[in-house]
Amino acid sequence: MCLVNDNQPPVVPSSEPESLTDKGKTGRFWQVFWLTFLVVSLAYAWYSFYAPSVGGAWAADYATAQKQAAESDKPIIVFFTAKWCSPCRIMKREVWADDQVMAAVNEGFIAVAIDVDDPDAAATVARYGVGVTPTTIITDAKGNVLQNRQGRISKADFLAMCCPGHQATS
Fold it and tell me: Is 170 contained in some domain?
């Protein structure tokens, strides 16, 4: 048996869920806040992990760099990096992608990037005792260390390290 109460008004379904219709200015503020936070966070994450392809002539591996250095009598710049290394990506973006840096490097050095996680590069990583990324080492053609810098360095510091006569320009 079903009882029907005709004294109550019929229930009309709302076009919006109840939680959205009851929100005031405070609720709208938090919606906008979290959406903005999400967009800014995603943009920052992209920026942190974006690294442009670096220009210039880079040796494929350390052995190739040593061979080229011996033939040209140029020192070697060895840049130890890793795919997961955020400071390495920042340095690639701010230093290695710079035209002034690449012109100086291409003019006076043989450049090689070594991924510290690459099993084929384990001997080179061990030879130079690299435990921190990024690490930038300048060697002579025989592989003897001339300069060594651990951690991220700025364009100006890099140019001062590799090319004392160069002044960084913006």
Answer: no
Give 43-51's long-range contacts (Cβ < 8 A, gap of 24+).
48/86, 48/89, 48/90, 49/86, 49/89, 50/89, 50/93, 51/88, 51/89, 51/92, 51/93
Whether the pLDDT of residue 3 is over 60: the answer is no
User: Structure pTM?
Assistant: 0.68
Instruction: Find out whether 162 and 104 touch, Cβ atoms under 8 Å.
Output: yes
Residues 6+ apart with CB under 8 A from 92: 51, 52, 54, 81
Q: Which domain covers residue 127, as residue numbers?
A: 58-162
Do the domain assignments include residue 11? no
Residues 43 and 86 occupy one common structural domain:
no
Residue 71: partners with Cβ closer than 8 Å, 6 or more residues away: none
pLDDT tens per residue across span 35-87 = 899 988 887 777 666 655 555 678 999 999 999 999 999 999 999 999 999 89
Q: Does residue 94 share a domain with residue 42?
A: no
Tell me the residue length of the chain: 170
Dihedral angle over CA of 105, 110, 113, 116, nearest 10 = -130
